Amino acid sequence: MSQLPARIEIREEGPREGFQFERGPIATADKLRLIQALAGTGLKRIQTVSFVDPRRVPGMADAEMVCQGLRDVDGVAFGALWLNAKGFLRALVAPHLTIDGSVSVSASEVFGKRNQNRDREEDLAAAAALMALYAEHRVPFARATIMAAFGCNFQGEVPVAAVIDRIAAVLALAGGVGLAPPVISLADTMAWATPRRISAVVGAVRDKWPDLELSLHLHDTRGMAMVNAWEGMRLGVARFDAAIAGLGGCPFGKHAGAAGNICTEDLALLCAESGIETGLDLEALMACGRLAEEVVGHPLPGRAKQGGLLAV
Amino acid sequence: MSQLPARIEIREEGPREGFQFERGPIATADKLRLIQALAGTGLKRIQTVSFVDPRRVPGMADAEMVCQGLRDVDGVAFGALWLNAKGFLRALVAPHLTIDGSVSVSASEVFGKRNQNRDREEDLAAAAALMALYAEHRVPFARATIMAAFGCNFQGEVPVAAVIDRIAAVLALAGGVGLAPPVISLADTMAWATPRRISAVVGAVRDKWPDLELSLHLHDTRGMAMVNAWEGMRLGVARFDAAIAGLGGCPFGKHAGAAGNICTEDLALLCAESGIETGLDLEALMACGRLAEEVVGHPLPGRAKQGGLLAV
After folding, report:
1. Angle, to 10 degrees, between the axis of helix A120-137 and the axis of helix A85-93?
2. Which of B170, B144, B160 is nearest to B192 (CA)?
3. How many Å apart are CA B107 and CA B162, to the nearest integer?
4. Residue B238: which pLDDT band, with cuts at 50, 70 and 90?
5. Is residue A90 part of a domain?
6. Which ranges carry the Pyruvate carboxyltransferase domain (chains A, B) (predicted)?
7. What letter would DSSP give residue A51?
8. Given an 8 Å threshold on Cβ–Cβ distance, is B1 in contact with A199?
9. Are A14 and A300 in contact (CB under 8 A)?
10. Which residues of B touch A155 (CB under 8 A)?
């Protein structure tokens, strides 16, 4: 286990992932209640909303209202997701957000078409357009997400070479407009990852770009999220997205069953008991996990919020 | 990953674990429906019932009726659990069972008192009495379970030395009556295991007894079962207990939340996608997972039964 990192950073995706995926309407005030509770757990980065088309993702129709309701917390960055210039410009004028530039491209062309109706070239062109905007607005280019990096419900296996190709294309585009390489988030959008696939993809990316910072975005649809995260940590990956209580899922991924992200508090507990620092308050996270269930009105898949801390 | 076994054996504990732990009464016919479905998945060993005091474990009051209803399946051994001579003698006369001798001792004395009302010496004396019966009845001594091998909700940390001490005591007793060393099942009865604890305990046992066959019995109460199983497999452990759909839990463990075993179909899926043979039919297992939910009348924690096989 020699490569286990001393510390990892968990980026909270629960509000963004969960409120896009849940079927029932969730009151803006309830979203804010969960977000502010999360801001008291030691999380440094909380993804709050997506600026996307409310006709496609009705749960995000109140994105501006959520931002208006945020209360700043010292040391906590509230973030947002957007996938095109229009979304970025909405985010730019929303209050209380930390605006870090990000792009998402799909390693599976078929999924790219389903998710954003973009083929490979259109996918890159959209990323390039966003990067140009980041350069123009002097917004740091923080993160590039490679979606479907471990497999795809529509295409099937995604070759490691396709992931490498997408990263290379993003890095070339970034260099072209004078932007430094961002964190590369390898997203298991449709829960195809296994330890073996994690090892293959992370290993290939590391071989080609030893200095790139990697992050993993994992879903637990098939029960593999924790074991995949562990494999990532064994390989030295020190950045993870996670969602409180295991909220979330991509609305366009054709998932069966619960499709949530790796559960923040379960991952934090694994780290705490493995000597890996997260800076998180586990008791406060467990309470947030239970609050998330109250807010969405049904049980959520995370285990530790009930199974609990070890206390004698 | 060099020690990953080429093949593991999964022993199904779902009926025994689940029917002891579920609150609602489950009809004998429904138990049998699930057991026979499991017998069609490639599982070679299915624990069906416990011969225990029905006043303490009401869900097992129909143990004899379940056995009478079993239909033999080629290549499948139906097993049972007992914790004392009375239970063993009930099992001996029940039809359709494969009678393998087993004993259970607790690495935590406090848990031993709660579970069986036995202190350390009484715990060993009960094991010795069973071994004498196995020798007398020419029943193979197949398995010794070390309960609470990774920690205890009552005692807290369980020192590795306590696990070693219990194994040494069992092996000495077995040798004393001419029985060969059994498989040692390290049971995470109260879900304290983490990869680090798995590594510490398995490593210490291996150091002392390189040739002992080890098995892991893991609970997912805190979301760690899969990562613990993976760590076990990385260390070369090739025997695992598991429960269909993640059924189960010890009635005397003071668990919060769902306390089920590692989920059979999730573990089998991890193995299938990691190149580790299980001999199991994944589609049939997923169907059994859904049947288990139907039989107990509520959702069960396993993920793959809904999240599904990868099919494009």
Report:
1. 30
2. B160
3. 6
4. very high
5. yes
6. 8-286
7. E
8. yes
9. no
10. 312
Q: Which two tokens stand for residue A232?
A: 């990532």
> What are residue B197's DSSP bridge partners?
none
Determine the distance in angstroms separating the CA of B287 from the nearest CA of chain A, rounded to an integer.
14
Set of chain B residues whose Cβ sits within 8 Å of the Cβ of A227: 226-227, 229-230, 270
The alpha carbon of residue B262 is apart from the nearest alpha carbon of chain A, in Å, by: 10
DSSP string, chain B: -TT--SB-EEEE-HHHHHHHH-SS---HHHHHHHHHHHTTTT-SEEEEEEE--TTT-GGGTTHHHHHHH----TT-EEEEEESSHHHHHHHHHSTT----EEEEEESSHHHHHHHHS--HHHHHHHHHHHHHHHHHHT--EEEEEEETTT-BTTTB---HHHHHHHHHHHHHHHHHTTPPPPEEEEE-TTS---HHHHHHHHHHHHHH-TT--EEEE-B-TTS-HHHHHHHHHHTT--EEEEBGGG----TTS---S--PBPBHHHHHHHHHTTT-B----HHHHHHHHHHHHHHHTS--S-SHHHH-----
The C-alpha angle with vertex B208 and arms to B268 and B9, in degrees rounded to 5, equals 15
Catalytic residue numbers of B read 250
For residue B222, give the nearest of A199, A230, A303 by CB distance: A303
* Gap between the Cα atoms of B146 and B252, Å rounded: 16
Domain that holds residue A63: 9-307
Q: Taking the CB of residue B93, how many other CB atoms lie within 10 A of it?
A: 10
**Residue of chain B with shortest Cα separation from A228:** B227
A159-189: per-residue pLDDT in tens? 999 999 999 999 999 999 999 999 999 999 9
- Examine residue A41 and state whether it is found in any structural domain, yes or no: yes
Asked which of A92-101, B115-124, B159-168, B226-235 is least confident by mean pLDDT, the reply is B115-124
Angle subtended by helix axes B195-208 and B160-176, to nearest 10: 40
Q: Cα separation of A277 and A258, whole Å?
A: 29
Position A43 in a domain: yes
Contacts of A220 in chain B (CB under 8 A): 303
pLDDT band at A306 (very low <50, low <70, confident <90, very high): confident
ipTM of predicted assembly, 2 dp:
0.90
What is the spatial distance between Cα A262 and Cα A245, in angstroms, rounded to a whole number? Answer: 8
Q: Which residues of A touch B302 (CB under 8 A)?
A: 223
Q: Convert B261-289 to b/e letters by CB count within 10 Å (16 or more is b).
A: bbbbbbbbbbbbbbebebebebebbbbbb
CA B60 to chain centre: 16
Contact yes or no for B274/B226 (Cβ under 8 A): no
| B227: CATH | 3.20.20.70
Q: What is the pLDDT of residue A187?
A: 97
Contact predicate B57/B50, CB 8 Å: yes
Domain count, chain B: 1
Residue A311 has a pLDDT of: 60
CB contact under 8 A, B274 and A154: no
* High-pLDDT (> 70) share of chain A, %: 95
Query: Nearest CB to A194: which of B191, B270, B312?
Result: B270
**Closest chain A residue to B273, measured at CA:** A194
Shortest Cα distance, chain B CAs vs residue A34, angstroms: 22
Residue A312 lies in a domain: no
Closest Cα to residue B229, out of B270, B200, B192? B270
Structure tokens at A287: 């309470």
